[in-house]
Amino acid sequence: MRRAIVAERRRSLLVCASIIAALLASAVASAWQASTVVADARVRNRASLLVSTSNALLSGMRDAESGQRGFLLTADEQYLEPYVRGKAQALDAFARLSGLLHGSGQVAALRDVRRDMDEKLAELAQTVQFERSGQHKRALAVVKTNAGKAAMDRLRKSISAIVADCDAKSAAALRDETFRVERTGYAFAGLLLGILALLAFATVMQRKAFTGVVRGAERMTRAALRDALTGLPNRRDLELQLRALERHAATAHGPVTALFMDLDGFKLINDTQGHATGDALLRRVSERLRQTKRSGDLLARVGGDEFVLIAPGLANRADVDQLCARLIAAVGPLAREFGFVGLSIGIAIREAASETLADLVVRADQAMYDAKRSGGGYRFSPKDHDIGPTEALA
């Protein structure tokens, strides 16, 4: 039994440890996937910021170029406002772009952007200066060299390359993020399954433990209410069953006969042949009494060599005589195996609910001593003498 308990405990610990390990693995996997998803989101945010900053730089350069052309065409200083604003926007966007691309491996592309932007801004500034000083033809001559256009085209190409690289990285990050989100879902599903498994395991173990406690309590209750040697109800169980019989409609107000039996010759056999022989005799007597009693009768061992038989519905004198004769006859043959063995039986009959069953047993006990003093057999309680005398049966 102890080995089985230890083995069950080890199995339980192993299963519990396995489930906890699976939970930890799922939790670690979930955390790692979540951190990767966060990193991918940062890549996408950075790429989006790079694209918007690059577009802001190009937008500023286009505004500056538009303002320059308007000024060259009209010589109106109001057209320089887009030029000034666009130039400031382009320079600010480049500063932010430099910070975003620092250490990204795109330093060469950033240098190209700066070179082309400076060249274009220089061309714009030169033409504006010529126009302000009244040298309109020189300003147009600078424009016609197409150096500014070439610088602007290269700038657009460089910015497009940066944007394309950002888009590619953003798309890769999105794919990886989608993959990680799916894996995180799987990890969370595993975590949930692990928790459910742990709960199920705990429920099973709790139910098993509760069942064990209930069964243990039932075994203890049975042990407390049963005679360990014969398996018959003991005195405590007899008291409980007597109270139950008094509550039962069939026996609450009907006739009941109590037989209190003492085993004659037991003390001599127990003292001379030993306790083991005495125990064997008690088991054999209990078995024979159990086989002889009626199916609805209650048989209990209430002392060392004392037994009580409760016979509900039995009140007829002839039937009682017949039952006692059968009981004595059942025990008699054991004398050939153990030596002299006999029964002294005291009888008490309750014809109506005039007394408790416990009091009935007390009267039967007193009648048993009368039978024993008379040399064995059975005797009725003095209260039942009006039923008719019965001689002792040796």
From TrEMBL:
SMART domains named among the record's database cross-references: GGDEF
Keyword Ribosomal protein (UniProt): no
Domain GGDEF residues, every copy: 254-385
Pfam families named in the record: CHASE3, GGDEF
CDD domains reported in the protein's UniProt record: GGDEF (cd01949), HK9-like_sensor (cd19410)
InterPro entries: CHASE3, DGC-Regulatory_Protein, GGDEF_dom, Nucleotide_cyclase, Rev_trsase/Diguanyl_cyclase
Transmembrane segments: 185-205
Keyword Nucleotide-binding attributed: no
Keywords, in A-Z order: Membrane, Signal, Transmembrane, Transmembrane helix
Domain of life: Bacteria
Signal peptide: 1-31
PANTHER family linked to this entry: DIGUANYLATE CYCLASE DGCT-RELATED, GGDEF DOMAIN-CONTAINING PROTEIN
Record-given protein name: Diguanylate cyclase
Biological source species: Paraburkholderia sacchari
